Structure formats: structure tokens, C-alpha cells
Amino acid sequence: MNIVAIDFETANRYRTSACSVGIVVADENGIVDEFYSLINPLMDFDSYNTYIHGITEQDVVEAPTFDELWPELADYLSGQLVVAHNASFDMSVLRQTLDRYELPYPELDYLCTVTLSKKVWPELANHKLHTVAAYNNIEFFHHNALEDARAAALLMVKAVNQQEVKDIDLLAAKYQCSKGRIFERGYYPPKTGAKKRKSAKR
């Protein structure tokens, strides 16, 4: 069983402004690989976003741009089942930033750990990442992309083991959680029809 978790932080309100990314690969025993990088979004930073994640424009001056980083990210994501906490946000950052740089979409399926957490731990008052992580005794530093990806991955490892299923696919099937999909010409959000890729020109 492999779980690939991803998290983005953004410089401002635009989904094309990724300024950091964390990816964590885990199996049923825990974490097996991690990747983290700052990203230069070539955009202004909003003070509120900096307040949330602590990353400033100066921090990313020498960081790679997304298109420079993409080949390495694609190696982690292509052909995988990817999870993220509030996946609609992270998947839209991924798609819109690929559009911005006119890069091809990878082929991947994805699941939202918020949706799965609501099914596995319905007794919680809310299913924010810090709430679900604390409930499962997972310590992390919130709004750091690597830390958030690590927490999401470990939550899914715990969920798979607690529910005594073989992998995250079977966990999703048990709770009737549909997967989203990104592919060359567009994407499928969970439980809805295909959407075509929009023009990359902005």
C-alpha cells in the first residue's frame, strides 16, 4: 500500500500562486519518503497569507519556479492515488498552476482526507486537520506544506489500520467515497462528471 499526500501553500488568493509544496509517501508502516520545496510564484505576497504560513517574498527569491520544479513533482504524482486535506483546494492549485505554465496534466486519482475523516471519525466536532491529527496523537506544525502533507498521510495510515482494510482504495470503497481524477485533457471531481481543461492562456 502506498499513500501519496500533497499540500500547497499560496502567496495570495490566486490558486496559481503556489509558494511551497510538501509531498509525503507512506505505506502501512509509516512514512517512506518526503519532499519539500519553496516555490517562487513570480507574484506578490498577500500579508494575510504570509501571516498564515510565514513565507515571505524574500524567502522565495532564489527558489525554483513551479515549471522548474514540476519534473520532480510529476515523478511523485503521476499514476498515483494522491490524498490531500481539503483536496479541492490542492488539486485546483495543481491544475491552475499547470495551466499557467502550459504544462501537461499528469494522470492521477485523488481522495480528500477531510471526507474520509468524517466517515472514519464521525464523533469529532469538526474535521480540520489539526483537530483530526490531535485526536489521533499526530503532532505537526500547521500550515507548513511538508508538515500538513505528513499529517494527512499519517491520518490515512491510521485509518487504514484501524478499519482493518488492505489499502486506501478499499477504505474509500468501504465508506462509498468516490475518487477524483486528473488526466491529460481535464479532470473529474469526486461524484461529478468530467470537466474539460480550460485554456492555459491568461
TrEMBL record:
The keyword Nuclease applies. GO terms for molecular function: 3'-5' exonuclease activity; nucleic acid binding. Pfam families: RNase_T. Gene3D superfamilies: Ribonuclease H-like superfamily/Ribonuclease H (3.30.420.10). Residues 2-165 form the Exonuclease domain. It comes from the Bacteria. One of its GO terms (cellular component) is cytosol. Keywords: Exonuclease, Hydrolase, Nuclease. CDD domains: DNA_pol_III_epsilon_like (cd06130). This is DNA polymerase-3 subunit epsilon.
